[in-house]
Amino acid sequence: MYLNLYETCPVEPVRGEGVYLVDKNGKRYLDLLSGLGVNLLGYNHPAIVKELKDIPPFLHLSNLYLHPLKEEVASILCSLTGMDFAFFTNSGTEAIEAALKFAWKKNPGKIVAFENSFHGRTLGSLSTSGILKEQPFPRINTEIKFLPWGDAESVLKENPSILILEPLQGSGGPRVASREFYKAIMELKKHGTIIICDEIQSGLGRCGSFLASQRLGLKPDIVALGKGLGGGLPLGCVLLRKEIASALSTGDHGTTMGGNFLALKLARVVIKEVLKLMGHAKELEKELHGNEGLGLFIGITTERKDEVMRKMLEEGVIIGKSARGIRLLPPLIIKKEELLPVWERIRSLL
Q: Is 292 a residue whose pLDDT tops 90?
């Protein structure tokens, strides 16, 4: 029997069409959560379908072998982000695990994270997730200090070895901080702190630039990607600067399935398509009055989130929630006429 540890939605989908899910009774739902942010291109995007029809020479190729596709996707990601190296994983939380290990190898010591942050549920990512502080599980054996999100003054009082943040908080938001806050983080970098940006939700064009950090003036040492990178297949990535990579040796980290051949084929397609859609995300942001997020990482604070979610589901719209209120992660292909009326309807219910 399946062990369900999720707060599930009372919809039984049988197929997806663009920005819509269709249930077993034929009812269509506008999906503004896009598989928890995975389906950046919606459901059954023509470019993804076309790539899947091109059967690869193998579905999986061990990391004991190098292949031009791996270097190609790594080079594209490095070029778009200004990083020097890419390491592929199976997921976002695995990317965070690797990022913490890579940073620790270069500069071991105290880690600073933020209250209401979320970086994943494996041991290292859990340990640095402020929103999960009360969960009764062990933590990694190092000092971790959680600071108030957006508090530039508290950041400047610290001198950590490593600082990890979401450029804008997701499960705890969406919340964008002040420019002073991001400047304070960059000030720590000048003094040797390794900055890790968790772009698992905010990256890949969702915020109107390839990385949200690029819009916010952040220049991290390490970036973690996941969710939509594999076009619906499991794929994560750690991007890092050569100064960090130079401290690593063969065997310091590894993965059996990370960088799966088929997932990399789809990643190549996803990257190409989201580059066409980033401007669209940025333009729609201007129309979303009351949005507390960035681009198509959309949120609004409310204590009535559960009530609003139920009402919108009755009206055929799937939305999400965060610790602060409503959270939307629509596919980047969504049209203005599909999104704006629903956004105004959500606001009217508040």
A: yes
Helix (H, G, I), strand (E, B) or coil at 137: coil
* CATH architecture under which domain 68-271 falls: 3-Layer(aba) Sandwich (3.40)
Predicted confidence band at 303 (pLDDT cuts at 50, 70, 90)? very high
- Quote the pLDDT of residue 55: 82
Whether 170 contacts 201, CB under 8 Å: yes
Band (pLDDT 50/70/90 cuts) for residue 159 is: very high
The full set of domain ranges for the chain reads: 13-45+278-348, 68-271
Give the SS3 label for residue 248: coil
How far does CA 119 lie from the centroid of its chain?
Answer: 9
pLDDT of residue 61 exceeding 90, the answer is no
User: Residue 297 phi/psi, 5° resolution?
Assistant: -105, 95
Distance CA 340, CA 348 (A): 12
Structure tokens at 238: 């750690």
44 with 331: CB under 8 angstroms? no
- Radius of gyration, CA atoms only, the chain: 20
Classify 13-45+278-348 by CATH class: alpha beta
- Strand partners of residue 196: 164, 222
**How much is the pTM?**
0.97
| Cβ–Cβ < 8 Å for 259, 266 | no
Nearest to 32 by CA among 271, 334, 270: 334
Number of neighbours of residue 60 by Cβ within 10 angstroms: 12
